[in-house]
Write a structure and sequence with these properties.
About 80% of the residues lie in helices and about 0% in strands. The protein has 3 helices and no strands. The protein starts with a helix and ends in a 9-residue tail after the last helix. The mean pLDDT is about 85.
């Protein structure tokens, strides 16, 4: 097996695990998807496959946006769920 093939299979595993994890509402899914996309990007560069490079880059950017939104929502939920006192400033 050559390097691009190995990168592709590991990228697939990362991406599929990421999709599964996001379906289970696990934040690690975003990071797994980014890993998969990074490996696809590397594979595309080695193979000089411009469409794969472009798609992998765009998906990685979307995953970063997803992580940022997820973290922001988690912080907002923690603040809204706090019932320790009436004057809580969490």
């Amino acid at each position: 097996m050559n390097l691009p093939m190995i990168l592709g299979w590991i990228g697939n595993a990362g991406f599929f695990f990421g999709v599964y994890a996001l379906g289970r509402k696990w934040r690690i899914g975003w990071y797994a998807n980014i890993l998969g996309n990074a490996l696809y990007l590397w594979q595309g560069i080695i193979m000089q496959n411009t469409p794969l490079i472009f798609c992998s880059f765009v998906l990685a950017v979307l995953n970063v946006q997803g992580i940022r939104k997820w973290i922001k929502m988690e912080k907002e939920n923690v603040k809204s769920d706090c019932r320790c006192c009436k004057n809580c400033k969490n």
